[in-house]
Structure formats: structure tokens, C-alpha cells
Amino acid sequence: MPENPGKSRIPCYSSCQTISRSSDSYTSPSNCQLQSNPSHFSCASYPEEDEIRRICPCRDFQPQQHAICKQC
Question: What span, in angstroms and rounded, lies between the C-alpha atoms of 36 and 47?
């Protein structure tokens, strides 16, 4: 499971919510979210003072997706 250095681990492979607009991905939730467009992957993010820090993909790489890696 991916880690947030200095913070507790954030589970994100089994309980992700879906968001419908790409603009929603700029929020900084502590929970994992999935974009409604299946060709995108989303990340859990955690507010780090004034910036958003991306933690990990919510779901694993799938064929035909533009994901960076199978394991993060």
C-alpha cells in the first residue's frame, strides 16, 4: 500500500469514490477518488500547507489506460 511520508497510510485501492468533473480533481481530499473518465487515473491527495501533494493512483494500471505504473 502506498504511503504518505510522515503521515498515516491512506488506503486507496478498495474504497474510492467517483468524481465526475476534472476540476474536482484539484481539490485536496484525504480520501481517494476516481475520475469518471475511465482513461484517466486519479490520486489520493493530502493538503501539505499551501500545496496539494499527490500520493498514489486509486486503481491499478488497466490496458488502454494512460496510467504511469502498475505499482506505486
Answer: 23
Using one digit for the tens of pLDDT, what is the confidence trace for 5-31? Answer: 444 444 444 445 555 554 444 444 455
Check if the beta carbon of residue 30 is closer than 8 Å to that of residue 16: no
State which residues form the domain around 35: 17-57
d(CA 44, CA 71): 15
pTM here? 0.21
Q: Given pLDDT bands bounded at 50, 70 and 90, which one contains residue 33? A: low
Q: Which residue has the cell 501539505?
A: 48
Grid cell at residue 65: 489506460
What is the domain count for the chain? Answer: 1
Phi-psi category of 11—alpha, beta or left, where left has phi over 0 and alpha has psi -120 to 50?
Answer: beta
